[in-house]
Each structure stands twice: as structure tokens, then as C-alpha cells.
Amino acid sequence: MVDMLYAITLVPTVLLSTLRSDDDGFDKMNYKYTVALLILFSTITATKQFDDDRIECWSRANYIKPYVDYTNQICYISSTYYIDRNKTIPTNIQDR
Q1: pLDDT of residue 81
Q2: Which of 8, 47, 75, 95 qualifies as a cystine partner to 90, CB 3.0-4.6 A?
Q3: Model confidence over 3-57: pLDDT tens digits?
Q4: Who contacts 80 (Cβ-Cβ below 8 Å, separation ≥6)?
Q5: Res 72: pLDDT
Q6: For 95, phi and psi rounded to 5 degrees?
Q7: Is 72:55 a contact under the CB 8 Å cutoff?
Q8: Is 64 buried (19+), middle (13-18) or exposed (0-12) by CB count in 10 A?
Q9: Can you give the pLDDT at residue 77?
Q10: Helices and strands of the chain, counted as H and E runs
Q11: ∠ at Cα 76 (79, 93), nearest 5°?
Q12: For every residue of the chain, which 3-state class applies, written as one string?
């Protein structure tokens, strides 16, 4: 835990540091802003993966919200297939 806090305190030092004087603007952009952008984009991607709206599966109209949430979680972890919203779902299981 202490190592993590130490690493977090180093982030402003690395991003705002002016210790190197032999770098031009492109080098500074490479090691400062690129790392910050990669961290930002990876955080956005990780939060989207753990968001509740990962996938929306078909569920019955009379399901209450916990049932719908459970159905969506099961659809996310099991093998699913895509059906266009404009098409009807086949009644024959073999056609599905």
C-alpha cells in the first residue's frame, strides 16, 4: 500500500519535471503527455468494461429490474448471438 502511495506521489513529478535539458519539444511530449494519455484511455476502457450496461439481452416484459440485470450478466459471460432489432425472433429453436 505504501508503494502505491509513493508511486502516486511521483506522477506529478514525472509529468511536470524539467530536469532534462537536452530534450526538444517532441521528446517532452513523448514521455510526458503520451504516458498521461495512455493512462487516461486505459482508465476509460476499464471503467466501460465494468459498467452495468455492457450488453443488453432480450428479456421478458414482466421481468423486474433485478431479473433483467441478472439476465444481462448471464448473457455477457455466456455465448450469445446478435439479432437485429428490426427482425423478429424465430419461434423454432433450430432456426435460431
Answers
A1: 67
A2: 95
A3: 666 767 776 666 666 555 677 778 877 877 888 888 899 988 888 777 766 677 8
A4: 55, 57
A5: 82
A6: -75, -20
A7: yes
A8: exposed
A9: 79
A10: 4, 0
A11: 40
A12: CHHHHHHHHHHHHHHHCCCCCCCCHHHHHHHHHHHHHHHHHHHHHHHHHCCCCCCCCCCCCCCCHHHHHHHHHHHHHCCCCCCCCCCCCCCCCCCC
- DSSP type of residue 90: P
pLDDT attached to residue 1 = 59
Which residue, chain included where needed, has cell 431479473?
67
Residue 46 has what pLDDT?
82
| Grid cell in block for residue 32 | 510526458
Residue 51 grid cell: 459498467
Task: Say if residues 33 and 14 touch (Cβ distance below 8 Å).
Answer: no
| Residues contacting residue 39 through CB under 8 Å, at least 6 positions apart | none
